[in-house]
Amino acid sequence: MRISHASWQATARAKVADIHSRIPQEWLLTDTDLEKARKQRTLTGPFIEQYLDDCEKKIIGQDSVRLVAKIKSQEYTAVTVTRAYCKTAAIAQQINNCLHEVMFDFASQIASELDQLMAENGTVKGPLHGLPISLKDQFHVKGYDTTMGYVGWIGTYEGSKDPAKVHQVNSQVVQELLSLGAVLFCKVKVLSRLFEGVQ
What we know:
The chain has helices at residues 5-21, 31-38, 46-49, 54-60, 64-72, 78-96, 104-121, 172-179; strands spanning 99-102, 132-136, 183-188. It is mainly alpha-helical. The protein has a 3-stranded mixed beta sheet, with helices on both faces.
């Protein structure tokens, strides 16, 4: 079956709108902010940090080892760290359309569970306890699309509409990351260079 030009474009527009709708209202940039971004050569560092508070800047500036240690020592909560990463990703998405999936609600739920575990037992789930991790959009996460940029894969499992698989599968690496205490918060675009050499 061939998808008409109009229908694939409508599907793509609907997916973009869905991703945008999952960004909290308080993190939305103004038209003025977006215009400033279009004129910037470098969007990282000071430019993106202008939208973050001091605590969020400090958090995203930490390397992963220090960040996990600070969560373990309860200097930071997993929820606070997750929020900083989600907000930064939301800002980046609005500026350069880099995400294929926004999983902020899922991430917040995981972070809350990790904080509860810490509060109740004083223990971490694993060596990645509370560490926010973004995934390339080639790994399956239950409840979310994995499209690798293919419009025809939106709402499917690798093109299949089998209800036993669509949004029902975690990739092995996803299972491992979750079991180690990682917080999965978004799926980023797969680089087009990935397909170099594919005939």
